[in-house]
Amino acid sequence: LIVMFGGTPHKNAQVGSGGISRHLLREGLTACRDQGASFVCISPIRDDAMAELDARWIAPRPNTDVALMLALAHTLIEEGLHDQKFLARCTTGFERFAGYVTGADDGVPKTPEWAQAISGVPAETMRALAREMVRRRTMIMMSWSLQRAEHGEQPYWMAIALAAMIGQIGLPGGGFGFGYASANGVGNPVYPFSWPTLPQGSNAIADSIPVARIADALLHPGAPYDFNGEKRRYPDIRLIYWAGGNPFHHHQDINRLIAAWRRSETVIVHESWWNATARHADIVLPASTAMERNDIASSARDRMIAACHPISAPIGEARSDYEIFADLAGLLGARETFTEGRDEEGWIRHFYTVARQRVAEYGMELPDFESFWQAGIVTLPEPQDQKPLLAEFVADPQTQPLKTPSGRIELFSERIAGFGYDDCPGHPSWLVPREWLGAALAERFPLHLISNQPASKLHSQYDNGALSRSTKIAGREPLRIHPEDARLRGLSDGDIVRVFNDRGACLAGIVVCDAVMQGVVQMATGAWYDPLEPGLVGSLDKHGNPNVLTQDRGSSRLGQATIAHSCLVEIERHEGELPPITCYEPPTLI
After folding, report:
1. Per-residue model confidence (pLDDT) at position 436
2. Are 169 and 175 in contact (CB under 8 A)?
3. Which residues pair with 307 in a beta bridge?
4. Strands of the 266-271 sheet, one edge to the other
5. 76: exposed, middle or buried (C-beta count within 10 Å: 0-12, 13-18, 19+)?
6. Cα radius of gyration rounded to whole Å, the chain
7. Cα separation, 393 vs 218, whole angstroms
8. Conformational region of residue 447, where left means phi above 0, alpha means psi within -120 to 50, and beta covers everything else
9. How many degrees, rounded to 5, is the angle at CA 78 between CA 62 and CA 70?
């Protein structure tokens, strides 16, 4: 039995973190199916599981997965189905956690009926699932998406607790795993060596901030904040130098980000396209693309290393990021330290030499550089199957302890409890989000927005390409809505709507679809931010960027991560003439 919280979306597994990837998701999951595995997809979106898996669809209200899992845990305890021997041998803190589940601590038993009122999932569905998970070999999968919500730390800790109660951690096909299908290659057998990369050096500034707190740092320099048990203060950032990213795509509450961005004195950006980040910069250094330089492509999750040859010289004044940094290092008197005396070809040959050495240590051989460079790709044999997660620990917890204070799986953490965080206590807990369908705010904004990964582009990359544009409706990003929610608002396929809340508004094109549960709308990320009145904070986004709607708060004081999936909105038909899309046109240069 494979229970997939957040599903295993095929579109996400088409994305790899570099390298030349072999995409194995469909092959792997259909092989499981053909060997007798069955699937449960727990998500507000049915097609988060591929149709050929014939997965049972359980659709809880977004952000309520922990309540559902607590009901499963309650059933296991109430019916005496939990593996007490495993819990005693491999975990610590179960008694404290069990007191919370049964209600002995707070007077609220986390029964399936209790969870039904929160999640909307029928109580008997949860009871039946809990019994089945114990009866069969069960893998609990958690998509990365669940952490991108308020209290997003809790579903993962709760999944580990549930897997420990079932007692199958360390067994083939059992236990838990995070991130399957969130990107290509998660879970693949891999070799115990990494492909070489550029040396990272040591940053003379040891201070850092959680990446999702950039607007807070810009708006409130010197202000205190909590993070992972530490008391910190935000730095006073005067200059932003951004290379290799697009905060106007991935950061929440764009209107707040714009106000924060203006607090810096100078913004410098490396970019290949006139996206929103480039448009909000003082200095843009045009960077060449991967198609305009020699390189080596490899990824930690792949068994391939590939030669990358340019198909064009760099366009206009564009240069590679390496050349830009090398020249800046030269102006700072550190060119030789930065380049180590190597140009582009020198680094590529060095990388390949190191790769040959690492591969040779494991009894394999790569061809000489010239042969590799001409052939274009080298593929290593399939690695042998890896042991199940935590198999060594489960076999002997005394001699193979975990890197936790107790050396065991901690279902209650003295360390985290000692932080005193009301938004992340010492054991997995149901914590009520500010924005969910059970909040008072849902009376004004009765739809929960899921802004997931797109199928037609890579994050925001290639949104200006033909494939991405072909999916849009009158040039706007599509928004999927349940037929009943559409009927209540008098909406039909192809209508253009204004999606709004107190943080902002954008336009989108309607797709009526029963693959999303009632009360939920889904609009992928990646549409380039295109304000009706550029420079005006709060301006209508004409294009369909969901981050004008999402809230910019930390997941908790422990993690301080993004909470894009905790977002309530309302929609209404757009009246009047549609404004033109202008984000793909170059800005006026002075």
Report:
1. 98
2. yes
3. 296
4. 239-242, 266-271, 283-286
5. buried
6. 25
7. 44
8. beta
9. 20
What residue ranges in 120-229 does DSSP mark as E strands?
139-142, 175-178, 224-227
**Taking Cα atoms as reference points, which of 32, 27, 44, 43 lies closest to residue 2?**
32
Structure tokens at 284: 């843009």
**What count of other Cβ atoms lies within 10 Å of the Cβ of residue 394?**
20
3 state DSSP class of 216 = helix
- Least reliable range by pLDDT among 17-26, 69-78, 528-537: 17-26
For residue 447, what are the β-bridge partners?
Answer: 569
Tokens of 552: 């910019």
Helix (H) or strand (E) holding 505: strand 505-512
The label of the residue with tokens 């589940």 reads: 101
Q: Tabulate helix, strand, coil % of the chain (nearest 5).
A: 30, 15, 50
User: What is the residue whose two structure tokens read 């838990």?
Assistant: 176
Tokens (6 digits) for 458: 């890579």
Amino acid at 70: L
Separation between Cα atoms, residue 120 and residue 61, nearest integer Å: 6
DSSP string, 441-491: GGGTS-EEEE----SSSBTTBTTTSHHHHHT-BTTB-EEEE-HHHHHHTT-
CA–CA separation, 474 vs 462, rounded Å? 18
Site of tokens 């030669």: 307
**Among 483, 473, 485, residue whose Cα is nearest residue 574:** 473
What pLDDT, on a 0 to 100 scale, did the predictor assign at position 287?
97
81: phi then psi, degrees, rounded to nearest 5: -95, -10
Q: What is the pLDDT of residues 418-450, one digit of tens each?
A: 999 999 999 999 999 999 999 999 999 999 999
Which is nearest to 543 in space by CA: 446, 468, 458, 466? 468
How far apart, in Å, do the first and last CA atoms of the chain sit? Answer: 62
Helix (H) or strand (E) holding 308: strand 304-308
Would you give the distance in Å from CA 382 to the centre of its chain? 27
- Provide the whole-model pTM: 0.96
